[in-house]
Amino acid sequence: MFSESDRNLPEISTKTLLDLNQWQKIQNLFAEIIGTNLWLLDPKGNCLIHPSKVNTCCCDLISTSYASLQPTECVSKAYENWVKKKGTVYKCSHLLNFFVLALESEDQEIAYIVSGPIILGKREPDAVYRKIAHQNQIEVKEFLDWIREIKILSQHSFNLIINFLTEISNSFIKSKTQMNHMLATIFEAARQAVGADSGSVLIFHPEQNELIIHSSYGLKSEILKKEKLPNDGIASWVIARNEAVLINESGSRNIPQDQLKRPEIKSSMIVPIQKDNQVLGVICLNSSLANERFNENSVLMVRQLSRLVSNEVQLN
Where are the beta strands (DSSP E) in 2-142? Predict the structure, then answer.
């Protein structure tokens, strides 16, 4: 646990180490993607930026008297649970979960991300929630309707979110080459999520009429030396049509065979990166083996992550 002097030090450095304006944009977008609220707290438990709220918090049903820039009771208790017990997950009195992620710099905790409410696994029977509503003097139908809207996550999905939040937040701390660093972080999160053994983030530079590799994994050295790809491949084909492509055991629907130039790839997805109705590039993920994680749900997930990528792209 922090001593009082330890907890006073990071409050000054947090705003230096994190670009809070940029973090607010990323936090808002990520809350929308995962479908739950996010708070960024300083080491004293106060909000550093506006909460990113995409749904009601349980305490909102009881009272709306708190200041908008202050954490709700459940969020504060989740933070206290971390400080006292290092508990990543806090279950509130309404049987909903909040999770806490500590942001560190040089082995010192400088801020905390709190997310929730979520339900891990499955909902409780309605009778349990009716009892909670009566105990808290909440209108039962309103409470039950709200409970049904709360995001349900499997342990696997929960772990993916924690891992991605860790990667994305660490990349912000003391990042000197923010664009490529952030692209690499988002790309690596997507790659690991689907189990790709190669891939890249390709950004189209219209002035040079070239696709430039901004981040990659498992590509051949001769491709990396060029740092760009020809404009007659499948990535350009996807950009021209602004339509994601999925290649798996079920086949390669609607893709001309002359675009499939790497027979060693058994599973692949190419997802456009779009901003303000303009296609900026693509995220390419490949597997040399048949991979069941290359499916429509994964394409949707990568499409959502591409929105984070589009926030970082700056065409020079």
Answer: 37-41, 89-91, 97-105, 108-120
Q: Considering only CA atoms, which of 125, 121, 79 is closest in space to residue 100?
A: 79
Domains and CATH numbers, the chain: 4-172 (3.30.450.20), 178-312 (3.30.450.40)
Per-residue buried b or exposed e for 281-292, using 16+ beta carbons within 10 Å of the residue's own CB: bbbbbbbeeebe
For residue 108, what are the contacts with CB-CB under 8 A and spacing of at least 6? 6, 9, 10
Q: Which two tokens stand for residue 316?
A: 């020079």
Angle of the 296-312 helix axis to the 178-194 helix axis, nearest 10: 170
In terms of pTM, does the model score above 0.70? Answer: no
CA dihedral 112, 117, 123, 127 (to 10 degrees): 130
Sequence-distant (6+) residues with CB within 8 A of 306 are 271, 272, 273, 274, 283
Q: Divide the 316 residues of the chain into consecutive groups of 10 and give the mean pLDDT of each group.
A: 38 60 81 86 90 80 54 88 91 91 82 92 92 89 90 84 75 56 78 87 81 83 61 78 82 60 80 86 89 85 80 60
